[in-house]
Amino acid sequence: MRVNVSDIVKTEGAGIDVNYSGDLPGLHEFDNSVEFKPSFDFTGRIVNFGGLLKLSGKLHFEFVADCIRCLKPVETAMDIEVNEVFGEVFDPDEVDAYIYEGNVVDIEKPLIDNIILALPTKIICSEDCKGLCKNCGANLNFKNCNCDESEIVDSRMEILKDFFK
Ligand SMILES: [Zn+2]
Ligand SMILES: [Zn+2]
Fold it and tell me: What are phi and psi of 41, to 5 degrees?
């Protein structure tokens, strides 16, 4: 998503509204365990602040990812704050700044970076999801399997028995 900033680059304090709704195609190559919905929504502003362009706003996005315990697909919606800086040249005092060229700021990369940072590392469908039985794979949220947990304990004891011989 490219924004023409020629109206504000020469004027300290000048700003433009930046609104974007749609897909972020560049995001799909990052994490294929997460399925993003093409309904990203960004509302923000780019302001000339001492020659640097500051992007700030709110980003809404939605995705589907499998519960790490029971593998059920879980839909999640997130709202995050985005605050990034663009410079026309690399500045050692602003190493995190994105570089823009030809009075055009591309906000896709910073939006993608913020989404990746904000993604939860572990998705669970519910705090008390019981997950799958490690032995037979049954979904323990819906049924109890006949696997005897003591068998698992027993096999550990066997190892200990050998250890103490
Ligand atoms: Zn689950
Ligand atoms: Zn089982």
Answer: -140, 115
